[in-house]
Write a structure and sequence with these properties.
Elements (H helix, E strand, L loop, with lengths): L8 H13 L12 H47 L6 H4 L4 H10 L3 H13 L3 H5 L4 H19 L10 E6 L5 H9 L15 E7 L7 E6 L3 E5 L5 H13 L10 E7 L5 E5 L15 H13 L4 E8 L8 H9 L6 E6 L9 H8 L10 E3 L5 H5 L4 H14 L4 H5 L5 H41 L7 H23 L12 H38 L10 H42 L3 H33 L6 H13 L5 H4 L8 H47 L6 H4 L4 H26 L5
Parallel strand pairs: 1-6, 1-7, 2-5, 7-8, 8-9
Antiparallel strand pairs: 2-6, 3-4, 3-5
Length: about 750
């Protein structure tokens, strides 16, 4: 509303009077034009009114909506919860509050002792379900928050905190994930993981049945009834996305598992790095896999979990090399050593050095796990039994026992470490995530405004849409004619650019007058010597006078034509820019508008050119009103530059007729110059602004009744697709912002 310039008459008059009485009414410190001074007074008066109004109005709006209305509505909503069907569950206390009360009642000591006993002799199942209820309530909101954002698809727009699991082929990567999740993932030779797999593990309360769901291609969702179905479901999803062979795909598979025996954790499993193509694989399969992996691990929001066999030289593994490339200092990388049972006798010290972060240092260090081997699988060794076997292995190992005690070995310790790492990483990333969403929303909103709302489907609405488009276009042309178009802060109005050229034209005329004065004596003497008749000295020879006038006027005709071309170019560029901004999305309308734009401009250009030529033909008729001419002649004779000293450039005496002719020429050329200074711009403005743009508006309105009018507003396919994409992105980002606003996780 503030863009509507308005104020009550009495209020504005008082402010204007006050502005004029202000002592520092001239801030420029130098003489200024009356129009600038007056405009300054008006601007100061109006901005004072606006400033006073906004000083109160903006706070009032904010207080009314964000305090009065918002808090009243919140109170009403909170009171409404009393009648909610689940009202009884609303006052269920958090377990940490209950524990705090128990502590105040002196029962905490007994609970601590019980927890210490459990920590010293846990069962394997309790190892996996290691998190206390208190810690779970801190962990789950964080992980659920990021999972919610990921399910909205906002990873297309911004990077989310994640843990990406990478490893060379046959590094034991799938076995690690299998041990963490409690389900058997696809196994075999060659490339087993062929698509990014988002593995969401959610720990549920005891007694809650196991639940799984796999989703991909944005619309396919398959519920799983038991863990045995997972392997086949993942394989089927990979075949759907990457084909039946051994190719890979960038499309993601989401696998969610809810169980009492899993940690709260989300991981992204990436294909193992294959060094050699086999079978019908593409020869550049290694390069394809590396590019896919790099898209995930290069993001600063990703923790890289690098799986490396303990029985190989870790410096030779491609996975660790890739991680070091994108994370040179190892700030985001955690190494996982697998297959410790395959380490050769005597090589244990090398593994110990690696675990102690002495070989290839990583900020997050290394851990070690022992998962099921192929023999264990053949013997149908359960995952629970495998955990027991792992604990016995590390507990009885001379070199590796210490790492179990330090929490650097075993699947249970790894799951706890990963959960803590992910939660900490999420909390660190949240402020930046909020900033990214805000910036993306602003950018998307701007792009959508530029594209417009799109073409309606209803026939009547389509007609109105075309009328609105053309009317808006014509309004901009009207604003250009009246020098009121909106050009923002970076561009300049059309009339302002043209006015600059008109000023150059006046400079051209002034320069011509100066040249006339400099060469006047020689020209007059030359013409007098050749054409003088019976006239006595002091009498002006009209023929001589006329010939000199005509020659100097002719010299101005070409600059005037150049001014016409320059002015036309300025208008052409402005009209083309306006046309593109309104019609670029509609190629048929753009093509239909092009002909009248070009034809009408050429038509008016020819008329303006003809008018200018006629003007200069008329200027060859030497004429002026007697009174005007007499005043200019008197002024010319009285000017200091035409005193006797002006003529003393040579030793010879200047004839009276030369002196008199010079006065007359100067007087007449001043009149001609002043006339052309205004007349030429008027001709150009009339034809190239007024007539041309008025005719363009008429031609554009005629398109509304064109037989093919319906086809004019058919959008470019890429514009429609881009709008659809931006609308979906806007919806995703808005939902993401809502999710962030409602979720306030804490570490």
């Amino acid at each position: 509303m503030e863009k509507i310039i308005y104020s009550q008459g009495g209020l504005y008059s008082r402010q204007l009077e006050a502005a004029k009485l202000t002592p520092n009414a001239n801030p420029f410190g130098k003489a200024i034009n009356a129009d600038i001074r007056e405009m300054t007074h008006h601007l100061k008066a109006y901005f004072t009114i606006t400033s006073d109004r906004l000083a109160n109005q903006v706070p009032l709006i904010l207080l009314y909506h964000m305090m009065e209305q918002y808090l009243v509505n919140v109170k009403t909503a909170m009171l409404g919860m009393i009648r909610h069907k689940d009202a009884g569950s609303f006052i269920q206390e958090k377990s940490d509050i209950a524990k705090k009360r128990e502590y105040l009642l002196k029962r905490m000591e007994r609970l601590r002792k019980a927890r210490q006993v459990l920590a010293k002799s846990p069962t394997m199942l309790e190892d996996i379900s290691h998190l206390s209820q208190h810690y779970e309530e801190k962990v789950r909101p964080c992980i659920d928050l990021v999972d919610s954002l990921r399910s909205l698809g906002v990873e297309q727009d911004l990077a989310l905190p994640a843990i990406a699991v990478i490893g060379d082929q046959s590094s034991g990567k799938s076995s690690v994930l299998e041990a963490l999740s409690g389900v058997a993932l696809p196994r075999g030779t060659g490339i087993v993981t062929r698509c990014p797999l988002v593995l969401k593990l959610k720990r549920v309360k005891k007694g809650t049945p196991w639940y799984g769901i796999i989703s991909y291609q944005s619309h396919i969702k398959v519920e799983l009834k038991n863990p045995a179905e997972v392997g086949d479901a993942v394989a089927k999803a990979q075949n759907a996305l990457a084909g039946q062979g051994k190719g890979i795909s960038h499309e993601m598979i989401n696998l969610e598992i809810r169980s009492t025996n899993v940690p709260d954790l989300t991981l992204i499993d990436l294909p193992g790095i294959a060094r050699v193509a086999t079978g019908n694989q593409s020869q550049d399969i290694e390069e394809q896999i590396k590019k896919l992996i790099e898209t995930f691990i290069k993001k600063q929001e990703t923790i890289n979990l690098v799986v490396v066999p303990a029985n190989v030289d870790i410096a030779t593994t491609e996975a660790l090399k890739m991680a070091k490339t994108v994370d040179p200092n190892g700030q985001r990388t955690l190494g996982i050593l697998t297959k410790p049972d395959l380490v050769d006798k005597g090589a244990e010290d090398n593994v110990v050095s690696t675990l102690n972060n002495l070989v290839i240092p990583l900020k997050k260090g290394y851990m070690m796990v022992k998962c099921r081997g192929q023999l264990d699988i053949n013997d149908n060794l359960s995952l629970t039994k495998a955990l027991e076997k792992e604990r016995r292995f590390f507990g009885n190992h001379t070199h590796f026992r210490i790492f179990l005690d330090e929490g650097k070995a075993s699947i249970p310790h790894l799951s706890e470490r990963l959960t803590k790492e992910l939660v900490s990483h999420i909390n660190r990333s949240l402020p930046q995530l909020e900033k990214q969403i805000k910036e993306k929303l602003e950018k998307t909103s701007t792009e959508l405004r530029m594209l417009g709302d799109g073409v309606p489907q209803d026939v009547t609405e389509r007609d109105n849409f075309l009328i609105e488009k053309i009317s808006s276009f014509n309004q901009v042309l009207t604003d250009i004619v009246s020098a009121e178009e909106d050009v923002g802060d970076t561009d300049t109005r059309v009339f302002t650019k043209i006015r600059r050229e008109f000023s150059n034209w006046k400079t051209e005329l002034n320069n011509k007058a100066t040249q006339l004065q400099e060469h006047l004596r020689d020209e007059v003497e030359e013409y007098t010597r050749i054409h003088r008749g019976k006239e006595l000295p002091g009498f002006v020879n009209y023929k001589t006078f006329q010939n000199i006038v005509r020659r100097h006027v002719e010299d101005l005709e070409e600059p005037a034509m150049n001014l016409l071309q320059t002015t036309t170019d300025i208008i052409r560029i402005a009209v083309n820019k306006t046309t593109s901004s309104f019609f670029e999305a509609y190629p048929n309308l753009m093509r239909a508008a092009k002909d009248p734009l070009e034809d009408l401009r050429e038509q008016e250009y020819e008329r303006a050119e003809e008018r200018l030529r006629s003007q200069f033909k008329m200027e060859k008729i030497v004429y002026s009103q007697d009174g005007i001419y007499s005043r200019q002649l008197e002024a010319a004779k009285s000017r200091p530059e035409y005193s006797d000293t002006f003529w003393k450039r040579s030793s010879k005496v200047i004839n009276a007729d030369v002196r008199e002719t010079a006065h007359h020429l100067n007087a007449y050329f001043t009149i001609t110059s002043d006339r052309l200074a205004n007349q030429v711009p008027l001709i150009l403005l009339y034809h190239m602004m007024e007539q041309y743009l008025v005719n363009v508006k008429t031609a554009m309105l005629g398109m509304i009744r064109h037989k093919d009018a319906g086809s004019f507003i058919q959008e470019k396919s890429d514009i429609a697709k881009k709008r659809e994409y931006l609308l979906k992105r806007m919806e995703r980002l808005r939902k993401a912002r809502q999710v962030l606003a409602k979720s306030v996780p804490s570490a």
